[in-house]
Amino acid sequence: MNPVKLTTMSTVLALTPLLVSAADSSDPIVIPIHNWSSQIVMSNVVGQIFESMGNNVEFVTTDSQAVYESLRLGDVTLELEVWEGAFGKSFTAALEKGGLHDAGDHDAVTREDWWYPMWSKDACPGLPDWKALNDCAELFATAETGGKGRYLDGPVDWLKHAQEKVEALEMDFVVINAGSAAALWAEIGAAEKDNRPVVVFNWTPNFAEAVWPGEFVEFPAWEDGCDKDPSLGPNPDKPHDCGNPANGYLKKAAWDGMPEKWPNAYKVLQAISFTNPQIAEMAKLVDIDELEPEDAAAEWLDANEDIWQPWVAAASGS
Ligand code: TMO
After folding, report:
1. What is the pLDDT of residues 118-146, one digit of tens each?
2. How far apart are the C-alpha atoms of 315 and 71, rounded to whole Å?
């Protein structure tokens, strides 16, 4: 190709954006997948929406804390479920370093904390107060916890700081990490058979609330910075002496390069906002109906065109 032609072509290319809206790159949009069902299904839902717009999509399984560093570097393109309780700290730290940004809130309000099914309260009627829970600690003891209560926490990458909380509040509980979300549901299901008191990590929105009525333990109320500043919360010498936010956010996050590289997909990402019932339903399709995440996503999209098609229309029409 001679230089004259090149010049002509780049002139045409330079004018193109004025005539038609910019096209998305054909490189894959990389969507990270973690270890709880709503996030996996939602990621597939959004991936299938992008594919329906002609985009290429790639899913990668990543650690749910390390993902914020990957996002800063552009190794993954977006994150669909930034839960304030579990990931607020990692997300904020990554924002301060730069390279990713807040791509807006979902409508959903979230909570993640110690939780029990209602039969635990029959055995320990002072619940949901955390001091009452602590006074009942031995009711929650098992052979492995030596007279102290057993608290089954989530997988380690959700970093709930339960051990620090137990120490800061001087609780008679032993923290055990579940290997997977499924291990939490197995623990509740096994306890249900003989109404054995249990306390486990749980969250909302989730499928579990439709299966096992229950409540969150009420710890000293969350104050911003309670996870860092010892002076906040009842123990003046230690951080982590309060509950997680009771009305937490659920955010979307994006790599800073996304708007320029995939402008149409980015507009859809901005428009996306899921509600509590929608997210609980996504988890249910996998955890109760036992669909594969991909099929759960296809089913969700089929049943909810009125919800997601306007997001796509708004992005392409403007
Ligand atoms: C991150 N999670 C929703 C499982 O708490």
Report:
1. 999 999 999 999 999 999 999 999 999 99
2. 23
